[in-house]
Every structure is written in structure tokens, then in C-alpha cells.
Write a structure and sequence with these properties.
Elements: E1 2-4, H1 8-15, E2 18-19, E3 22-23, E4 26-27, E5 31-34, E6 39-41, E7 46-48, E8 55-59, E9 71-73, E10 82-90, E11 103-104, E12 115-116, E13 121-122, E14 130-144, E15 154-173, E16 176-187, H2 198-202, E17 208-212, E18 216-226, E19 229-232, E20 238-247, E21 253-257, E22 264-274, E23 280-285, E24 288-298, E25 307-327, E26 333-351, E27 361-372, E28 375-376, E29 385-389, E30 397-399, E31 407-410
Amino acid sequence: MRMESEAESAINAAADTVVNGEAANVRLPAGSYRVLSQLNIKNGQCLIGDGVGNTNLLINTDFDPDAPGVVFFSGREQLGPCIRDINFSFTQPLTQSSRAAFKTLTQGCTATSGCKYPPAINLGDSNRFKISNIRVSNGWDGIIHDAVTFTSGSGGFVIENIEMGTLNIGMNLDDIRDGGFVDNFHLFNYGFGAATPLYSVYEDGDTICARFGRFDGTQVNNIRCFIGKMEMTADFTFGQFSNLKLDSAQATLSVAGSVAGLGLQISGLAKSVANTDCAINFTDQVSTVDISGFVVTNAAAAPTSSSLICVNATGAKISMVSGSARLVKTDARLATVTSGSLYMRGAAINFVGGPWTTPVISVGSSGRLVFQDNNFLVASTADVGAVTFASDSNLNMVSGNNWNGWKVGLLFAGASCFGNGSG
């Protein structure tokens, strides 16, 4: 494989070529290309490599500190920019174990401090772009849309088959006004092994797999976050997700926004080894969330009295249908509903260990719960309510459940426990 030094000049010169009135595609044969400043890919143009194992863009501390990204997209409407079959390889110190030590290029990052590089791909003001078969190794940020700087909005795009190895944010999509499509996105420690000190930065709890802001109707399929968090900000509007895998304790889901009616729809949600409070968290401006087909598990390391699922959003309507929960920590909850409503139906709830000392679900005085047709797979050996309510409300409903000896606890004045058997 050949090495091209300072390849950006030749690549940008090729990108400026016009054929029959249109920008020409740029092909990068198998090889390693050192890049010192941004590569500009324009409307209707594609940067094409020979595969992530063959065509490598090399970025080190000599990269232009003022560049908005390694690849920068521009152009809108019918023919957006395109990139495919390329690996981005950033230089990072495998011996650095502290996120606080990392610096930007402007701050003078070094080969030993760790670098907060510009993103691998900056979407600029483009729409209808296509990104496919890309790997990012040792990056800081991956695919980024900066909705503060570029305010035209985006949409109509395709992002597919992405292997993302970043320490800060893998993918940030915001101000998506016209839908789009994301398929097969995987955040993983590409470029550094689990035995390296750098892995400590990746797993410190601050790595974000994907963040979504305004998101009008985009479809996201097959996204796996290994260690990194997934966030829907308060600006999130509505979108459909399928096969969302939150793998490891640090891979959490935070939803702070969704619009009424359409909202957030998730078909297939898996969360493993939750050991933090509110690993699946609904807060702030959340309105409507529908989840079907879920598998959630907490861990023995979960904090005492913590909850795997938290609902704390006034007016929220969270629906979780047809799934399973495996609870390992005997003094931790499956869910707490502080405000808003949780509707859970058709869940198989399994327990490891015991006796249980904490309710499985706790409903606060401003929360509401509809709990129907759920099955407790292990009999209770403790006098603790499976579901407890802090106040009386005709909006709470508990029916058709197989309690297997568990109880329902009513904590308000004059109430008592009931529910042995089914009910």
C-alpha cells in the first residue's frame, strides 16, 4: 500500500474538476493518505475509496486547527455529497487514560496529551447526502451536524454501515427537517484495545454513541452502542427506531423531548447490565414514546434504591409493550414514575437472588401507571409490594397480572396491600 503525503491538495484539486458541467467524483485507490486540512466534497460529488481495510485517511496533530472537519460537505437539494468505502485513522496516545488531559489542536494537543480532533465528517449545510461503509478509528467526533453554525436544516439523507470508534460523540444529528435513513451504526473501540489505558477514556461514562436533536421523521435501524450513551435532546420531535442495542453498563438512553401524537417509536430495545440510576430515562419535554419488544437487565452493581427505568416528565405518555426484564439487584427497582404516565403490558419479569427488599415499580403522587397482563416469573418470599402507589387516582390501573405471590402496595392514608395471586 502506498503512502501519499499531504494528500488533501491533490484530492481537493480533483474535487474541483468539472465534467459536463458537474463536479467529478474523486476515487482514492487502496493506500494511506496523510491529510493536513479539510477535504471539500460538493453537491452531486462522491469521495470513493477501495474499502475500510484498504483506503485510509491519516490524521495527526499537524492537521489544520481551523478546519471544521476532515471531510466537509456542501450543497443542497436534488444531488447531495457522498462518501463511501474509507477509513479515517486518527493519531491518539494509547497510553493516555484521562479525558481531562485531551486538548484541541488550537490548544496545542500533542501525541502524548490526546487530541480533540475536528469531526471525521462535518455535514455542513448539506442535505440528501449519502455516507456508507465508513470506519473511524481513534477519533474524537465522528459524523456531526452543527445546527448552530449551519441553520438551513437537513434531510433526505442516507447513513449506512458505519463502524465508529470515537471518544466524544459518534454521531450528532440535529435540525433534521425532512426525514432521513440511518442503518447499521456501531459504536465500538475501533483503533484501541480494551487492554490499553486509552480504553479508560472511552469507558468513563462521558462517551456519546449518538445524539439526536430536532428529528422530523427519520428512520433509524440496527444501531448498537457499545459503552456509549444515546441521547434525544429536548428539541427531539419524532422518529422511528428499530433494533436499538445498548450494550454494557455505560450505554444508557436519555430522552428529553418528543412531540405529542407521533413522538418517539422504538421497535426492539435491548439494555444490558444497567448499574446506574435511570439507565433508561424520560425527562423534560417528553410527550409520547411507544416501545414494543424490549429486553432490559440491571446488574448487581446497581445503586441501592436505583431504578432501571425512570419517568419524570409532566404529561408524558410512555408505553412499553411485549418484553422482558431481568432484575439482579434485590434492593433496586425496575421503574420509578415520578411524574407522567407509564403503560406496561405483556412483560415477563424475572428475578435473580432474593428476598426482595424494594418495590419493583414505584409510582409517585404525580405519576400514573397502567400495569396489565404482566407475568412475575419468580414467586415472592418477602413482604414487599411489587408495585407501590403514593396516592390514589382513577388513572392508575392494575389488572390481569400473574403476581406469583407478590403484592401491590398502596401507600396513601387508609390504604392497604392487596393482589396476592392474580389481579
